[in-house]
Specification:
This protein has 441 residues and is α/β, with parallel strands linked by helices. 44% of the residues lie in helices and 14% in strands. It has a domain of 203 residues: Rossmann fold. The strands form four sheets. It has a seven-stranded mixed beta sheet with strand order 7-6-5-8-9-13-10. Strand 11 and strand 12 form a beta hairpin. The radius of gyration is 22 Å and the shape is globular. The two termini are 31 Å apart. The structure holds zinc ion (2 copies). One zinc ion binds next to loops. The site of one zinc ion (ZN) has 7 residues, from helix 5. InterPro entries: Mito_gene_expr_regulator, Mss51-like_C, Znf_MYND. It holds the Pfam family zf-MYND. It comes from Branchiostoma floridae (Florida lancelet). This is MYND-type domain-containing protein.
Length: 441
């Protein structure tokens, strides 16, 4: 469940139809966008039948088409190098790049205030919102100024996500461990400081990327590209680190005992996470752990997975992370499995972007929330942006949750995107977080 939830998607759809706007390319599964196309440890094979594929995402389409000619043995060729190799290919690539970015701009090419679509100019700073003139731009500035900076970043990320460069996290070796205790790594900067291989992988890619930025007419600095590549890493690893930090918050130590993590309302992001197994980061966080079993539970979990790897009581193996699946609502699952000793109770419950801020979703969530609070299960909820967070806080008031932690999440993804239905709002995975245990006394 996410910001492109049924309700929001409908809203966006209605609005678009009314205004005859082209379809937005918002990809509900944003973890895909930066998982670049080349064979690597964190890239799922591109053409298997995946329920979360989005072929209409222009950047991804470009990478799939031109990755093999632009990237040779893990090195991104510069525009000049490509030209020297094959002039014709170079021309094709240049044209495809132009079309890709035009497509992205077309989605926004209308006055955001009055919706006119002729003679529009964009915000000079971020270039991500268009206006018909100064009057409309001035009217919008109070709202726009809050996101302009993030949108300038997204403008850069658009190119980063298009160029066929593997996510820098692909260099993380299996079996490595964090050189600091999980509790002491407090920010992404701390995380980078203990992962010099990622830092140098980013540095390795920056120079040729800068050439491409210049080539397509969006010149930028090495520092800006570096930050953009770092943002892509945060997007890749935010989910596993949020899980690990949730364990730390509730003093659950997988090095002391095997742990059971229940990811409730699991949908595309969680399924992708299990598929490309970014949770091996948890093994790096907790060296020599006693085993972790991650349950993905929710009506959106495919039957096939639920049948193939059902919840279990089996003993966990040291150092192993295992996935099990169930496609029912969590409170039903608990009554059927946990209450009949068919599965241990959760040491940590996580719901990524449950969408509690919407009237439509709070209703099906209500019995689950009551169960979580009544049984005092350590629970983490995350939200995509401040608007969702504020609304969720408000909607949860009658439940009287006891907050152990709440607010911005230092390990939220930094890859912020414009929401498809309001160009003055941005969202990023796990931006805000609530850790809850039981009810207020
Ligand atoms: Zn206007
Ligand atoms: Zn702007």
């Amino acid at each position: 469940m996410n910001i492109l939830s049924a309700e929001n998607r409908q809203k966006s759809e209605d609005w678009r139809r009314k205004n005859k706007r082209p379809l937005k390319y918002g990809n509900p599964d944003r973890t895909f966008q930066q998982s670049h196309q080349h064979p690597g440890t964190m890239e799922p094979p591109p053409d298997e039948d995946r329920h979360f594929r989005d072929e209409h995402y222009p950047q991804r389409h470009f990478r799939q088409t031109f990755g093999h000619v632009m990237n040779q043995g893990g090195n991104l060729l510069t525009p000049d190098q490509l030209k020297k190799r094959n002039k014709k290919t170079h021309e094709t690539v240049a044209k495809a790049l132009q079309q890709t970015f035009e497509k992205l701009d077309d989605l926004r090419r209308y006055c955001f205030v009055c919706e006119r679509s002729d003679k529009v100019n964009r915000c000079a700073r971020c270039q991500m919102v268009y206006y018909c003139g100064q009057k409309c731009q001035k009217k919008d500035w109070a709202r726009h100024k809050k996101v302009c900076k993030f949108l300038s970043g997204e403008r850069i990320d658009q190119v980063t996500e298009t160029l066929p460069v593997q996510n820098a996290c692909h260099v993380l070796k299996p079996g490595r461990t964090w050189s600091k205790p999980a509790g002491e790594v407090a920010t992404w900067a701390d995380w980078l400081s203990i992962n010099p291989s990622v830092v140098s992988e980013i540095q390795r890619n920056v120079p040729s990327m800068v050439e491409w930025y210049k080539f397509i007419g969006r010149p930028t600095t090495e520092a800006a590209v570096t930050e953009s590549l770092q943002r892509c890493c945060t997007e890749m690893l935010t989910h596993p680190i949020v899980i690990g930090k949730g364990l730390v918050t509730f003093n659950v130590d997988p090095r002391v005992k095997p742990v059971h993590i229940h990811m409730v309302g699991a949908a595309k992001p969680e399924l992708l996470m299990s598929e490309i197994d970014t949770t091996k980061e948890l093994s790096a966080m907790f060296p020599n752990h006693k085993g972790m079993r991650i349950l993905l539970v929710g009506p959106e979990v495919p039957h096939k997975l639920a049948h193939g790897n059902p919840p279990s009581n089996k003993t966990l193996s040291k150092g192993k992370i295992e996935y099990v699946y169930s496609n029912e609502l969590y409170h039903d699952f608990v009554h059927r499995y946990v209450d009949h000793d068919r599965c241990p109770k959760a040491d940590l419950v996580i719901a990524l972007h449950p969408g509690l801020h919407t009237e439509v979703l709070i209703e099906p969530w209500t019995p689950t929330i009551n169960l979580l609070l009544d049984r005092e299960l350590p629970t983490v909820f995350t939200m995509y942006n401040v608007a969702e967070y504020d609304d969720s806080l408000e909607i949860l008031i009658p439940f009287r949750p006891n907050y152990v932690q709440s607010g911005t999440n230092p390990f939220g993804s930094l890859l912020a995107k414009q929401t498809p239905f309001d160009l003055n709002q941005v969202f990023a995975s796990n931006s805000y977080i609530m850790a809850i245990k039981g009810r207020e006394k």
